[in-house]
Each structure stands twice: as structure tokens, then as C-alpha cells.
Design goal:
Elements: H1 7-20, E1 24-29, E2 34-39, H2 40-46, H3 48-55, H4 59-63, E3 65-68, H5 73-85, E4 93-95, E5 105-107, H6 111-120, H7 124-141, E6 143-145, H8 147-156, H9 162-176, H10 186-192, H11 196-208, E7 247-249
Parallel strand pairs: 1-3, 6-7
Antiparallel strand pairs: 1-2, 4-5
Helix pairs in contact: 2-3, 5-6, 6-7, 6-8, 8-9, 9-11
């Protein structure tokens, strides 16, 4: 006797199948040309740039392939995971046991590269999702970015990005508060001020606020570091209950 089919389950499967589509494209990423074999329909639905590339008169629409030698493979992989699932892979700090320093951590994925990739492909929803995931881990662990993280973030992202806003406020906080971690030495801070965009952002904060108003940004609302429009409803507008005595780290 044939098994009875579940019409609800079949309908849901059909919806997912129609979202994916059947046509595939090949994306070659990085200098090594790492190949990603991706469903074209869902890629074009989630990232408008690809809709123009594969739906227009470009050569990529004919070959169903494209090369992105300047992109970073891990960040691109994380972006495609979001395309397919609508979520991010977990972000965690991992203690670096190969060094004697108690303030050195690695991470499960590179926040700066991933955020910069989301910016490049004009994905504000993904940028805000990255910031929420990152800041949740920062608040839970009390581990905030050190000089090297801030430097890399400014090199990878653009003006007025949510990540830069967070880093600038972390640096401003470190400038006027005593550091017990040993990460924020005066020479290192002076070198960071050589990054013109960072110096501008930090000085703008210091000139428009009293020292009392320069607080640890970990406790600020997540929405402060989003890039969505002001009229967009956001459930992250309330301040966070965070670990205020956060330690800075190297990464």
C-alpha cells in the first residue's frame, strides 16, 4: 500500500525548492579562485548585485560564472551561509594558548573581513546582523577590541559604518580610562591616531562630549551601531545589560 503524502510538508518543500531554483552559477573567489557552486535564484534574490550581473547583458549571464579575486574566501563563505539560511554561523572568542599573554584571543570568524564584505555587496541587513552577533559575544564575555582589531576594522570598512562607530567609541573610552590589561600603551595609541579616519572619529567624540559621557560602548543599544534607516523599526534600541569592566584584547 502506498504511503499517504503530507500535503503541508510537500507545499513547504515546494516553496523552498522554488526559492532555490534549479539553475546554478560558479563563483571563483580570492587569488586561489576558490569555487562556490551556488543556486542562482536565491543568490540573486538575497543580493541585488548578482541579479543585475546574471540577469543582464553581462558576459557572466552567458557563462553563469564570475570571478572575485579581491574577495576573502572565509568572508564570502559566511555571506553565502547567510544567503541560504538567513542566519550567521556562531561567533565565539577562543583563548590563544600558544602565547603567554592572558589577553590574546582568536575568534571563530573574522568580524572585520565579514563586515567589509557585507558592505561591499551593499547588504545593510547583513551588516546589522553581524554587529548584533559580534556585540552579543562582546557583552557576554567582556572582551572588547584592542588596537590591532581596531586598526584592521578601519582598513576593511568604510566611513560611517556601524563597526567603525563601535571601534571609535572603544578607542575614545580607552583614551580616558585607566587600562589594567596592558594592551593600551601610549605609543600604540599614538600609532593608531595616525589612521586619519579613526583620529577624526575619536576627536569628534571627545570634542562633543564630556569625559563623563564617554562610556563603555558595550552597554549602548545595539541600534547605535546599525546602518538601517532612522524610520526603520528596530528591536535593538534599548541599552544592553553588559559587562562594563570589559577587558581589551589582542587578535
Amino acid at each position: 500500500m502506498a504511503a499517504l503524502e503530507n500535503p503541508t510538508q510537500n507545499a513547504e518543500s515546494a516553496k523552498f525548492g522554488s526559492l532555490l531554483g534549479i539553475d546554478m552559477v560558479d563563483l571563483y573567489v580570492g587569488p586561489s579562485k576558490h569555487r562556490f557552486h551556488v543556486h542562482r535564484d536565491i543568490l540573486c534574490t538575497k543580493i541585488p548585485y548578482f541579479a543585475k550581473m546574471f540577469g543582464g547583458g553581462f558576459v557572466e549571464a552567458t557563462t553563469n560564472s564570475a570571478e572575485f579575486p579581491e574577495d576573502e574566501v572565509q568572508a564570502f563563505d559566511l555571506m553565502l551561509f547567510w544567503v541560504y539560511t538567513g542566519t550567521l554561523r556562531p561567533f565565539k572568542y577562543i583563548k590563544d594558548t600558544s602565547t603567554s599573554s592572558s589577553n590574546t584571543y582568536n575568534y571563530s570568524w573574522n568580524i572585520d573581513n565579514f563586515y567589509g564584505t557585507a558592505e561591499k555587496w551593499c547588504l545593510p541587513e547583513l551588516q546589522d546582523c553581524i554587529m548584533d552577533t559580534y556585540l552579543n559575544e562582546v557583552a557576554a564575555t567582556g572582551v572588547s577590541p584592542g588596537p590591532s582589531g581596531i586598526r584592521n576594522g578601519y582598513l576593511k570598512t568604510s566611513e560611517n559604518s556601524g563597526l567603525r562607530r563601535f571601534y571609535a567609541k572603544c578607542f575614545a573610552f580607552a583614551l580616558i580610562h585607566k587600562d589594567s590589561s596592558g594592551i593600551w600603551d601610549t605609543r600604540g595609541m599614538a600609532e593608531l591616531m595616525g589612521i586619519c579616519d579613526l583620529a577624526h572619529d575619536v576627536l569628534a567624540l571627545l570634542r562633543t562630549r564630556t569625559f563623563r559621557e564617554i562610556i563603555n560602548p558595550i552597554g549602548l543599544p545595539r541600534c547605535d551601531f546599525h546602518v538601517h534607516g532612522k524610520n526603520i523599526s528596530c528591536n535593538q534600541r534599548k541599552p544592553e545589560k553588559a559587562i562594563i569592566s570589559a577587558q581589551s584584547i589582542n587578535w
